[in-house]
Amino acid sequence: HEQAVTCMFVDLRDSTRLGEGKLPYDVLFVLNQFFAEMTQALIATRGHYAQFTGDGLMALYGLESDDDPRRGARDAIRGAGEMLARLERLNHTLASELERPLRIGIGIHFGVAIVGAMGPPGAQMRSAIGDTINTAARLEGISKQFGVPLVLSQEVVTAAGLELPAARREQVQVSGRSREVTVYLLEQAPQLNAG
């Protein structure tokens, strides 16, 4: 069914370099720790794990029918903050295992998507498709292009009721869209006031 949702894509940067000079089990240990922390961040902020992408994941916020779309957008931004904080702690814990700290890129977008059970028979998951999802995925890529850990679309900032006058704002061309997208390039998740 069609539904307004907030979509988040998270990518672990330089994941191929992580495997250089390490045994596969050592890489698996680090990746398992990483995904455990990212999953806990989703659970803590009402996010729904929707897809595993090898070295990243897709999450959806605001899936419950009684959810205010604004709450889903705010929860997703809190989720990004939680992920970045957990990654910092994980880097500290795994310092002796890592040649360089783990880094992530996060893209978040808000809009209407088709939501439902998707995937092969017997292995279906609740997920979403559509322009909103594609745009969120592209925003994660833009985070890499601009060298920042977090990119928020104007749509998610508006849905969350935020104003970010001091944040770096850009108009970007997103593959698959004819119009440019207004985005905010951030080093950390913005603070949300109560409400």
What would your notes on this structure say?
The chain is of the alpha+beta class and 195 residues long. It has 5 helices and 8 strands; from the N terminus they run E-H-H-E-E-H-E-E-H-E-H-E-E. Strands 1, 2, 3, 4, 5, 6, 7 and 8 form an 8-stranded mixed β-sheet that branches. Strand 4 (104-118) and strand 5 form a beta hairpin. It is globular, with a radius of gyration of 16 Å.
Low-confidence stretches: none
User: CA-to-CA gap between the ends?
Assistant: 28 Å
The percent of residues in helical segments reads: 25-40%
Oligomer: single chain
Given helix and strand content, the structural type is alpha+beta
SSE pattern: EHHEEHEEHEHEE
Please tell me the overall pLDDT. 91
C-alpha Rg (nearest Å): 16 Å
Task: Count the beta strands.
Answer: 8
* Cα shape: globular
Largest sheet: 8 strands, mixed
SS field, number of helical segments: 5
Q: In percent terms, what proportion of residues is strand?
A: 25-35%
Keywords:
about 200 residues, 5 helices, alpha+beta, single chain
Give a short synopsis of this structure.
The chain is of the alpha+beta class and 195 residues long.
Topology overview:
Blueprint: E1 2-12, H1 15-18, H2 24-44, E2 48-52, E3 56-61, H3 69-93, E4 104-118, E5 125-129, H4 131-146, E6 150-153, H5 154-159, E7 168-172, E8 181-186
Helix pairs in contact: 2-3
